[in-house]
Amino acid sequence: MLRFILGFIGAVFAAVLLISFFSNLATYFRNPPAPLAAEVFHKEPREVHFASDGPFGKFDKAQLQRGFQVYSEVCSACHSLKMVSFRDLKQLGYNDAEIKKIASDWKTQVPSINPDTGEAATRKALPSDNFPAPFPNETAARAANNNALPPDLSLITKAREGGPHYVYSLITGYQNQPAELLRKFPDAKTPQNLHYNPYFANLNIAMPPPLTSNGQVSYADGTKPTVDQMAKDVAAFLVWTAEPNLESRHAAGIAVAIFLLIATILAYLAKQQIWTETHGPKAAVAPVGALDPKNQAKTRRAKVKSGVAG
Ligand code: HEC
Prior knowledge:
- The protein is built from eleven helices and four strands.
- By secondary structure, the chain is mostly helical.
- The chain has a domain at 39-84 and 130-244: Cytochrome Bc1 Complex, Chain D, domain 2.
- Helix 3 packs across helix 9 (227-242).
- It starts with a helix and ends with a helix.
- The site of heme C has 22 residues, from helix 7.
């Protein structure tokens, strides 16, 4: 009796679950969820070539230097680069004296302590310091940016799908909100203090367009500082900050691939060599030793001679 009651309760539970599952399924198909503006108007990063792309990619040092210039003159007003130190710039081709000067001229100083009073103070940056953040803390950073936090850029090309392609597209992607969007989604108007950018996940980003005019920085190497060029250069620079050893990783990868290829060829040839007697064209196996018919005949004769054989 008890078993029957328990089974009945179980069956009722299962039935209720099934009914609610199918009724929800029916509602979903009869009345599908409305798409969001961000699903319809979001764009994938644009195609653009970087020297570091692909398994053979290398850094273009002149471009990295230009990108660093864009970072230091534009982006560093809001974004920190906490994981990179001034002396790392040596990899971009700067010498020790230049790096010392870049560090001591840096517009934000490094927090330190007054050696006489012990009070909080600041000092000029040294080559061994990491890039000082533009804001002393998150609250200050948010207060200066409409409550949005400018993320640290050290690893941003690893942290976002599309890496440098995304950063480039984002910086060059600001535009007016399409009329079609407002027609389809009247509620999705870009709020005040935000900026429409179809490459940003939710279409409205708190960062004001950082690169707005050609010639915003002036390049020493004669490259034309168009907005497009500056965006490409700073994106390339951020690939380097996220993975300074990309070139040696690529070189090691290629060496390993070549080694494996040669090892595979050798292994194949060795296999051919070892198995050729049984599987190759000369596969007839000659019996040797005690199995050789000649030896067997000899053995038999010897046995007969000595009277052992039956
Ligand atoms: C005026 C301050 C300011 C400047 C200058 C600035 N940014 Fe930003 N940036 C922000 C803020 C604020 C955010 C956060 C936006 C948000 O979450 O809506 C941001 C976000 C970003 C993001 C992350 C977007 C994401 O997917 O989360 C990237 C990448 C970025 N900025 C790159 C740059 C680069 C490169 C420069 C220089 C060319 C630059 N920014 C200059 C304020 C700034």
